[in-house]
Design goal:
The complex is a heterodimer of chains A (about 375) and B (about 190). Chain A is mainly alpha-helical and about 375 residues long. Chain A has 9 helices and 5 strands. In chain A, helix 1 packs across helix 9, helix 2 packs antiparallel against helix 6 and helix 5 packs antiparallel against helix 6. With about 190 residues, chain B is mainly alpha-helical. Chain B has 2 domains: about 160 residues, no CATH class; about 30 residues, no CATH class. Chain B is built from 9 helices and 2 strands, in the order H-H-H-H-H-E-H-H-E-H-H. A two-stranded antiparallel sheet of chain B has the order 1-2. In chain B, helix 3 crosses helix 4. Classes of the chains: A mainly alpha (about 375), B mainly alpha (about 190). The interface between A and B is medium-sized, with 28 and 27 residues.
Chain lengths: ~375, ~190
């Protein structure tokens, strides 16, 4: 997106700083929501097998963590309060994302062809058919799986679909890309209006910014957000790493976008520059679909027998994950140095997932346990 | 439940008793099937079943560790879980209690020890069914697989990590080790 310099831009859906902060909270929620999904698939792979899938999933999970941190930087720059510990911040899985006017389900599940299909749905570049169609009414014509999930109270996501319009639950964004376009439009518009009054939108405390010294080897350059230019840069990085830049397969930094990384798993071949979308010409991708722990789809605490060691392990994981989100929240609200320690915590999270997925579920032949990510109510 | 799955469950239950780690922890290493296959291969299926039978909960259960026949095997299983290493059993013991003789010695090659978890034709021994190579000499001690070393219980027991694997994060060595279930001499150690 180019920044308008001469003519005023018209207001979009975001007209106040509070609305912008609402949007940014949803952005952080969205970026985080993909992480449990990718980590469950990543750690379901048998060790020492599936190196290609391992690397692709790992890089993408790390980039989602970068996106979360970039969104926190934008939130801080406009005086907002990143909070990953709010009830409902972590969705109940299967979560939901928009696909045009309908939703699709995003389950926690082991690595599989189904999982790759879902990953492609998550990252798929999708432009609204016309500029005015960025926000659409939520259609009732859902796919049967979504309708079925609706009927089972236990599976209903507590926060509803992830990309509804703040304050208007019957409307949603056409796609993740359109959601970020709206935010970029919103910050540009708001800054224009603030400047007319001799003020700026970017009044956040700069010491809250996560800068490269606290964020290293993390899937790309962290952008400290202090003005409109750095803000747009941070938001574009998030959107482009997912979908690619301007219809191409690479982002602005020349890295393959997430959609095309995952597509390599589906097609079975790596992309090489200057490949065109959908036609990779690199070496073959080797996948052993069977070398995967058979993790139960969307595991919940109630799947684990009361009083069992396994239940205790699943609970311990949720507490640890809740503590991790608490630590990230402190890191994003004035103590960025905590991100260095958060890395250690991430290894605990990894070990916790690995331990669960290797455990057979008692009484369920051929089905293994998995992390439930039910953190609301899990006291760290 | 199939016979093999039942044997694996009993092997893990015995191992949990013997190592003082929980069954969840042992399954969590991902090594249970590979270790069972190792024991079957190195000591023989029957003697393992004898051990599991003798070690059933009860007043006599602990005595397997001092038993002339079952003791060395029981202790070897503990060491296996802690270190990922199969230690050579005493030759006198092997001669007396009749551990199996290896039919097809083959060169062990690094990087060939991944656990595939598929059943292969019965003509292959338990180790080959796990996708691994046989040891060249029957009486050697060896690391069961690359993953076995990193999954050794000893690392968790001392609150450390295996050198060269499972990186704990830069600078984490500057705080006291965290040991599961141990609060330390100076209150809660570590950062959690």
């Amino acid at each position: 997106m180019t920044l308008p310099t001469t003519r005023d831009i018209a207001p979009g859906d975001i007209t106040t700083i509070e609305e912008l902060q609402d949007y940014l909270y949803r952005g952080m929620q969205l970026e985080h929501a993909t992480i449990p999904v990718y980590l469950t698939a990543l750690y379901s792979l048998h060790p020492e097998t599936n190196a290609d899938a391992w690397h692709i999933l790992r890089v993408i999970a790390i980039e989602e963590m970068l996106h979360l941190t970039l969104a926190a930087n934008v939130m801080n720059a406009v005086g907002g309060q990143p909070d990953l510990t709010k009830k409902g911040f972590v969705p109940t899985y299967p979560a939901r994302l928009p696909d045009g006017e309908t939703d699709f389900l995003v389950p926690l599940q082991p690595f599989s062809e189904d999982a790759v299909h879902t990953f492609l749905q998550i990252e798929r570049p999708r432009k609204a058919p016309e500029p005015g169609k960025r926000i659409v009414a939520r259609s009732r014509a859902h796919d049967p799986e979504v309708l079925q999930a609706d009927q089972h109270l236990d599976h209903r996501p507590v926060i509803g679909p992830l990309l509804t319009v703040p304050g208007r639950p019957e409307e949603q964004f056409y796609s993740i890309g359109e959601f970020y376009e709206e935010i970029i439009h919103g910050v540009t518009y708001l800054e224009q209006e603030y400047r007319k009054q001799g003020k700026t939108l970017f009044t956040g405390d700069p010491s809250r910014q996560v800068t490269p010294e606290y964020y290293y080897s993390g899937g790309g350059e962290i952008v400290a957000v202090t003005d409109l230019e750095s803000c747009v840069k941070a938001l574009q990085l998030i959107a482009e790493q997912g979908e690619g830049l301007g219809g191409g397969i690479y982002d602005g930094e020349g890295e393959l976008a997430h959609y095309y990384r995952f597509q390599q798993l589906k097609i079975g071949r790596f992309y090489l520059p200057p490949d065109e979308p959908d036609r990779p010409t690199g070496p073959p991708v080797t996948i052993d679909w069977a070398a995967v722990y058979p993790v139960k789809k969307n595991p919940r605490m109630r799947d684990y027998p009361q009083g069992s060691q396994l239940r205790a392990a699943a609970e311990e994981f949720n507490k640890e994950y809740a503590a991790f989100l608490g630590m990230l929240t402190r890191a994003y609200t004035g103590q960025p140095q905590l991100l260095l320690e958060a890395v250690w915590q991430m290894f605990h999270v990894r070990d916790g997932i690995v331990r669960l997925v290797r455990n057979p579920l008692p009484g369920r032949d051929g089905v293994n346990a998995g992390p439930t990510f039910e953190v609301d109510g899990a006291t760290p | 439940m199939s016979g093999h799955a039942d044997l694996l469950d009993r092997f893990v239950a015995f191992s949990a008793e013997a190592t003082a780690f929980s069954a969840v922890d042992l399954w969590g290493t991902g090594q249970a099937a590979s270790y069972l296959a190792t024991v079957q291969e190195e000591a023989g299926d029957q003697i393992l079943r004898d051990l599991l039978e003798a070690a059933r909960p009860g007043p006599a259960g602990d005595q397997v560790f001092t038993d002339e026949k079952l003791g060395p095997l029981a202790r070897n299983i503990v060491k296996l879980w802690y270190s990922g290493v199969w230690y050579e059993l005493p030759p006198q013991w092997a001669a007396r209690f009749g551990a199996p003789v290896k039919a097809v010695p083959a060169q062990r090659r690094p990087g060939q020890h991944g656990v595939a978890g598929h059943s292969l034709p019965d003509s292959k021994g338990p180790l080959e069914q796990q996708g691994r190579q046989r040891t060249p000499a029957r009486c050697a001690s060896y690391v069961v697989s690359a993953a076995a070393y990193t999954e050794g219980l000893l690392w968790r027991a001392i609150g450390a990590h295996p050198s060269g694997a499972k990186a704990p994060g830069y600078g984490s060595w500057a705080v006291p080790p965290e040991i599961d279930g141990y609060e330390g001499d100076h209150g809660k150690g570590g950062s959690r």
